[in-house]
Specification:
By secondary structure, the protein is mainly beta. It has a single domain (2-171), classed as Lipocalin. Helices cover 10% and strands 60% of the residues. The chain has helices spanning 2-14, 32-36; strands at residues 38-48, 53-66, 69-80, 86-94, 97-102, 109-114, 117-128, 131-143, 148-157, 160-171. It has a 10-stranded antiparallel beta barrel with strand order 1-2-3-4-5-6-7-8-9-10. It starts with a helix and ends with a strand.
Length: 174
Amino acid sequence: MKNIFLVLCLGLAGCAGIEGRVALDESPRFDLFEFFDGQVLAVGIVQDRAGNVIQRFEADINGSVQGDTLVLDEQFRYWQGEGPATRVWTIERMDQGFVGSATDIPGPARGQSFGNALSWQYSMRLPYGDGTIGVRFDDWFWALDDQRMINRSYIKKFGLTVAEVTLYMERLDR
């Protein structure tokens, strides 16, 4: 019986996610609209569940803010692997966080700020074989300073992480 309890506890611990509240008092404070208002360069990799790099890319991101709306126009280039050439996000600031949509995202994306961090979740259909497969993205952004940040995305299927994205982003126009 003890062994079953131990396995159950370890299994549940493996399902635990990042706790945003631990970043509430961290600085610098991450402001999604301020960071992305202008030109941003993103450089990243995608790793499969074994840790192998399956995609290397960069993206030019042009952001513009109009009141409580942020529009991000992303242009991608791939050195390894394939993916979308463009994506346009429209993100609305709400009382309890952010709600967004994108050209290849089938439903609303939702986000919340936590001090120097931002949590962002959404569903996406990714190419798989001759078709596509539905996955969930659990994104976390952490401000390094007012010019740079790191983004980690956990791509999940049936609640299990099947791939991870690591991005470095830097503002170019300040």
